[in-house]
Amino acid sequence: MTQIQDFSGRTALVTGASSGIGAACAKALAARGASKLFLVDLDTAGMEALNLNCDVEHITGSVADEALWEELEPRLTGLDHAAVNAGIGGHGQIANLDFAEWRRVMDVNLDGAFLTLRAAMRAMKDGGGSAVITSSSTGVKAIAGIGPYGVAKAAVSHMTRIAALEGAPNNIRVNAIAPGGVDTNIWEASDDFKRSVETQGREATIKAMASTTPLGRFATSEEIAGDILYMLSDAGANMTGHVLVSDGGFTL
Q: Collapsing DSSP states into helix, strand and coil, what is residue 9?
């Protein structure tokens, strides 16, 4: 494979696959020739609605459930690519944050990413492969009020670097994508976002949020998926341990 458009004959794992960036990755991989996709999400109907033109296995469950990976891992042997994307939002200032909320966010965003990456790297051990983890620009730039989310994403970025060093002898590349604002349904978990939508509508809310970004816009899921597929593909063959910031200039 020499071009990003060609994943012919490859197998790939995508978590958080029912919507947003995960769904965009699954669609792009199928469109570019992937022979089999393992899709993981809590939303079975969302995964099935993608109607992908390749062999697809839907796995319903939480990425933070170790038993899920123990059951799935034998079927992943020979895996070529992994988009470690599942995540949830989280808000609250450190001094006022309940430990239960801290653990809720870490459970999926950090523990789930670890379990996913561990399974993927084990499956790639003999044949090599590549993984991209979805981090965030909030893991690069400190933002008040999103403590557990920002900390989890910073940890994910550093896990990427460590995994890249450990995977290199087995020809396993590990990179991360650190998006800025992306117009996905992750925002729906925010009470402030929902109140704004009720007042002025979703489009105006997203536009107002994007005003803090130099380019003045949020990315689409498809744009971020394009960045991910570049790093997954042989077009990014010399990239490993890199955290690609794709944020419209937000971290400048």
A: coil
Active site residues: 149
Length of the chain: 252
User: Whole-angstrom Cα distance, residue 46 to residue 185?
Assistant: 13
Dihedrals φ, ψ of 126, to 5°? Answer: -85, -30
Q: Residue 73 in contact with residue 122, Cβ under 8 Å?
A: yes
Alpha-helical runs (H) found in the chain: 20-31, 44-48, 66-72, 99-106, 113-124, 147-167, 191-200, 202-209, 221-232
Output the tens digit of pLDDT for each of the chain's 252 residues: 345 568 999 999 999 999 999 999 999 999 999 999 999 999 999 999 999 999 999 999 999 999 999 999 999 999 999 999 999 999 899 999 999 999 999 999 999 999 999 999 999 999 999 999 999 999 999 999 999 999 999 999 999 999 999 999 999 999 999 999 898 877 776 777 778 788 888 888 888 888 889 999 999 999 999 999 999 999 999 999 999 999 999 999
Distance of CA 148 to the CA centre of its chain: 17
Query: Cα(224)–Cα(178) distance, rounded to whole angstroms?
Result: 9
The pTM (predicted TM-score) of the whole model is: 0.93
